[in-house]
Amino acid sequence: MFPSDVNGLSIHSWWLLGGGGMEVTNYCFLVVFLLHHAVFSLATSENLTCGPGLSTPGYTFPKGDITLEYGSALEIYCILNPDRKENASSLSFTVNGTTIPQSAYKIVNRTTLKLYFKKHPPGRYVYHCLLDSIDDPSSKNRAVCLNVVHVGYKPKEVSNFSCISQNWENMNCTWDPPNNSVPTYYELRFYLKGDRKYSYPCPVHNVVDQNNCVWNASSNPPHRQPYAQYNFVLTAINRLGNLTKRYTVNQYARVLPNKPSNLSLVEATPNSLVISWNEGHPFKSFPPGIVNRLIYQSKWDPQTYWEVRNAVFPPKETSRMYNITGLKYPHTLYDIRVFTRSSVAPDEDFWWSEPATITLRTKPTIPGHPPLTDIGSFETSDSSIETERNVYVYWQQIPRHLENGDKFEYKIIRIEEFTDDGVKIRDITPTEVSKTFAKFTGLSFNRYKFTIVSSNSEGYSTNASYIDVPSKKQSPPEPGSFSKIAFDNGIYELSWNVAPNILSYTIFWCDNKKDRPFDCQGFLNWTKVYVNKDDLQCDENGCGLLQKNITLSGDNVYQFALSANTETSSSGMVWASCTVLPQLAKGKLRNIWISRIGSTFIELSWNLDCFVRSRIIKGFEIIYCPITDPQNSNCKEPSQNMTINGLEIINGAKVTINNLKPYTTYMLYVIAMSENKDDRIKSDALLNTTLEAAPDLVPTNMAIHKITNSSITLSWKPPVSLNGVLRYYQVIYGTDVTRVEDKSEVVYATLNNLRSFENYEIRVSACTVTCSKNSALINAITNVGRPDKMDPPIILNTTKRGIQISWKKPYYPGGYLDFFDVKLRPDRVKDHEEAPFTRLNGSLFSYQWKELECEIYQVQVRAVNVGEDNSTLEGEWSNPTSSNCMFKDKDSIDAWWYILVGVLAVIAISIAFGYFTRCMWLKCKAMQNVGVKLPPQLELNNVYKDNKFPADQPITNHIGTTQLKSLDTNIIPPPDQELLLVKKESEFIENSIEDGEDKNGDRESSGCGSGHDSVSSSITAGTHITDSGTEADERPPSPESPVFSNSPRNRSSDLRQRNISHSNGGEEGFSRLALTPASVPMGYVTVQSAPRGYVSHAPLFLDSPIRK
């Protein structure tokens, strides 16, 4: 583009208007030019180039950069070297890459072309002189030389000269230079007050683009911190001239502090925050001092609202503390920001520091207010038990900024029941609690009073709210025919019938996300309406209808309720169950929803109380049809309808649409039919999909593709109607079931691990949530395979001639059983050594080996099938069966029989001998129980019955000669008895010794022993007996013991004694001799051992009076 002049004309236009009229008739100029040209002609060849070291076809004059003041003329000569073949007509000029028309320049002579502008516009331009070479046509527009032209002004005064001392640690001066194409240099110096002789330059050398200067503690010269006033001298210099300006700056007023540091909390209360911060070291000695500004806002304030507080502290106090009092909200986050400014700086936002920020929370306290309630803010409903009712207690939530702490909730802290017996405090837990209500179930029909408070972690609110629920008998009647009509712009019309004796009505509305029948969960508000007869409207039923309009903001969903109030009680809240639109024909039917859905049915429910009370609905028509998908509501089949009589409509009615297709999306809508046929209220379309079910068709096109001896490959196609999402196929073959999850249009499946040569019946079913019926049966027989392992063979006979065996078929033959292999291996041959086998026809089931050696053999058998390709498929060898050793002649066999008979005979004789021995032993045991009966004259009991002896004394103490003499000698037996006694005496003593001997030297009086083994054992059954011969029994027998019985059995046994010594040979022993239980003293006697081991002592009755 050409440079433009002040009037916007291009160089070309400008040249034509003025510059082009210039003629080379100025003689003076021509003379100068010719002289100049002559001088250049005499110069060396180096001067005929554009610059040193460059080889160019010519040069321009003047050379290098050209600086012009705006308004001056521009002349540039492009001169070819004399030796060039071209002439000036081959030259041209461009400016900033744009070719200048030939009319803008003029040929001076053969080698010189002149460019001239009388008044060049300001700016920076680059002019090129170009040559069209004759020698080289490809080198068109060859550069001859260039000039950079600056057209501008003399230095002008700068703008926005300003100096700032950042944190009183430096001085930074900046300015905005004026727009000037002529490069201008700036020099800034300062001197202090009263000392103009010495000025201090900028520490850094100025350059063209540098428009600031900074002095600090490390610069040279340094920053002069203590001085308040700086005097600056700014000099602007360029090729066209220079300009000097002076500025005076108050350093203290230009200090911009850093933001405060260490901003922190010192103390917090529910309504105040004490904070502290530091201002930094330099300001401890800052003469004018600094001021602070605090701004803060709570989370409940609008974002644009800030509280502002100014704080002034002593100049030298850098650590500062401030108490922010009067905060409105306990337990609330506050955003606090602290700014700093020099006290002498302008009170403008620019001179305040960056803020130090902190977010602090005030201390919690108890809630600021209890929830609001109204006389009618409760609701009663029937319970499943006739004698009980349910009660909803409603309240208005307090603003969140009054919650004042964590764990905020509403609590019912006291429930009073007014009964005939007085007021009783009830501890009843609500079954449901929300931010707006609490539900109590199973209450009686008595009056209740509920006390409600706000609660948080700090405690309960100071005040409480109360709700009084009257008894059922004292409750006023509920409002009748309560309905609402919604208009545009948030206008609602409420109407109801006024009952007598009602003082006022309370209209409640709940800002909720959903209309009834959903419970109120949002903010509850209300207003009171007092009954005025002038406000009542009349209809066909009389004058008692009251209407009120309420305007609410926003597009929220509002639920409305109404309570009838007397001076002392209320009926409680009655909710408007639906919304009536002002124009039924254009309105929509609401409160209709799908309550239940199955695979073949959809159940619709509704709540239409207000329509029923308005008596405008005669019935309903339900229209439904299947659609393609929820995004396309066009019916893909003709619509169907169901009509319901209006008399059948009750609150919460349900209608079931049956015979629907499973897993199909249906569109349903309901039309309410009124008495006026033109008024038909249509609901919004309801879309829902029936649940999945089992496919009503089975897989088709089943086919067998490949059969091996262990697998079957088959295919099928899915059912046409799936009734859901296909999850898998179930393949049933034999007693096995497998799952296939392939969902292709044609499904291929391979059944593996099958038995060979087995007939399989295969069925397939498709499964969604459940499976369809099985497909048609298809049979397939697997190919011949290897037979199973056979049972061990049975050895039928082993004779001199050989071994004969038989076998059974394997349980799973796997084919036709074409052959059987039998193998006979001597037991001495190791298992791993192969033995020859014999292959037999499959129809044989026995085999015999002949002429075998006498040794043990292992016999095995296996089955063999012939495959489809005539391959041999051999089964596994059976477990071996061992055979007995073979005998070569009949004598050997007979010898074995003799041995067997002999062994059996020995066993029989041993059994007979044992039986005989046991019988004898039993007989001997029976003989032990036979008692000995003596004549009365021989019984010692009669002889000594009148004598008393100490019990358990040694026999020498009561059998000795001295004591025997003291016996009663007046008793003289008859002569025959005397002889018998003498004889019995000797036998008695001898037998007593012999009775004690056993096979070791002691023996008893009979071969089998006696049940009364010895006198000592009879008398001292409970007495410990030692074998020392010197130790007496420590426990005498009890007089009550059976030993002292006077029965004949005991008396007969008193004469028996036995040696009970446990010693052998000559060891001493002792014997006990009982004379009579009543008169003979008890004890033991020690006697010397007889040579045979007998017990010997003097004749018992040697000095007896009887013998005398």
From TrEMBL:
Polar residues composition-biased segments: 1013-1029
NADP found in the keyword field: no
Annotated stretches, region: Disordered: 991-1072
Pfam family, one: LIFR_D4
Entry protein name: Fibronectin type-III domain-containing protein
Keywords from the UniProt entry: Membrane, Repeat, Transmembrane, Transmembrane helix
InterPro entries assigned to the protein according to its UniProt record, in alphabetical order: ECM_Regulatory_Proteins (IPR050991), FN3_dom (IPR003961), FN3_sf (IPR036116), Ig-like_fold (IPR013783)
Transmembrane segments: 895-917
Superkingdom, taxonomy of origin: Eukaryota
CDD domains found in the cross-reference section: FN3
Domain Fibronectin type-III: 157-258, 259-365, 588-693, 698-785, 789-890
